[in-house]
Write a structure and sequence with these properties.
The chain is mainly beta and 298 residues long. Helices cover 11% and strands 31% of the residues. It is globular, with a radius of gyration of 20 Å. It starts with 5 loop residues before the first strand and ends with a strand. Mean pLDDT is 87; it is low at 1-16, 22-36 and 48-52.
């Protein structure tokens, strides 16, 4: 089936918010206030059982911004927060996300399941709450230190997390600040088109899956060192030696090939990058700032 390519335009200027573009199926959010503050904390989730009904776990260590090791009556285990994804080690705000998780989980915690018990890496998939009912993953999203990430079938709280993320984007906090990782890109206007559903088996037809970036501004954009990412923890591509002239486009194919001024190849062998059910294209400057954020639906 031929998918409908979605597109959007994003402009970023020094001191302004990175624009989060909307796909054709969703409407753009409100423009942020210039001096927006951190959005309100999420209320305790009504889905949580009372503290007296659940076991408490002690946090032994923080692995990173979305993973922790705990100990309780049932033994020790590594827990991966459900429904969120924090920056990976070495990425912008990774240390801040880990520090926030350490702060939020400083005392005993409650662990709650969704559909899946253990992931492919042997980690327990859990929502983590404080005894007072504060959703730790949701709080990380609210602060802009993690993104809402749907991992089917464990999506029980992602509507809440999506709403918290929309507030964080509007407030320009954490990763949504234009200068979160260093000086912001100046006067950049880039349009994004994505073909996320290749013909046939996506994993075998990698070069029929692509994302295209078009410079819709009046000046050339030096993309050397800029990074393309999806919502996952592993898919990252860095442009090298490429200046995008006004009205020029570059198409980044998932598979392998010969790079040129108009075509670049991720060479992500073995699997597709872009999720057919919905994903987000992030274009980040060399400092790690989100310049273009382009979500799309499946």
């Amino acid at each position: 089936m031929m998918p409908i390519a979605s597109s959007c335009r994003s402009r970023s200027s020094m001191g302004s918010m990175p624009r989060v573009c909307a796909s054709e199926a969703s409407a753009p959010g409100p423009e942020p206030e210039p001096d927006a503050v951190l959005p309100s904390a999420p209320p305790p989730t009504s889905a949580s059982p009372s503290v007296s009904d659940v076991a408490m776990w002690s946090v032994v260590s923080i692995v990173d911004g979305d993973t922790l090791e705990v100990s309780g009556a049932e033994g020790d285990m590594t827990v991966r927060l459900i429904g969120v994804n924090a920056p990976e080690d070495g990425e912008c705000l990774a240390d801040e996300a880990a520090a926030a998780l350490r702060e939020l989980a400083a005392g005993p915690v409650v662990l709650l399941s969704d559909e899946t018990d253990i992931d492919q890496y042997g980690r327990a998939l859990r929502y983590v709450e404080t005894p007072e009912g504060l959703d730790v993953g949701g709080e990380l999203v609210r602060r802009g230190l993690a993104i809402s990430r749907r991992y089917e079938p464990d999506t029980g709280r992602n509507d809440l997390y999506d709403a918290l993320q929309a507030d964080a984007v509007a407030a320009g906090v954490g990763t949504w600040a234009p200068d979160a990782c260093g000086p912001a890109a100046d006067q950049v206007s880039i349009e994004v088109d994505v073909r996320h559903d290749a013909a046939g088996d996506d994993n075998e037809n990698l070069n029929d899956e692509w994302v295209r970036f078009t410079n819709t501004g009046g000046s050339a954009v030096d993309l050397d060192g800029w990074t393309v990412a999806d919502e996952s923890a592993s898919h990252r591509y860095t442009f090298g030696g490429l200046a995008l002239a006004p009205a020029a486009s570059v198409t980044l194919f998932t598979g392998c090939g010969t790079d040129s001024k108009t075509e670049r190849y991720w060479c992500n062998t073995g699997s597709a990058v872009w999720n057919n059910a919905g994903d987000t294209v992030f274009l980040r400057d060399p400092n790690g700032n989100n310049v273009v954020v382009h979500p799309y639906d499946g």
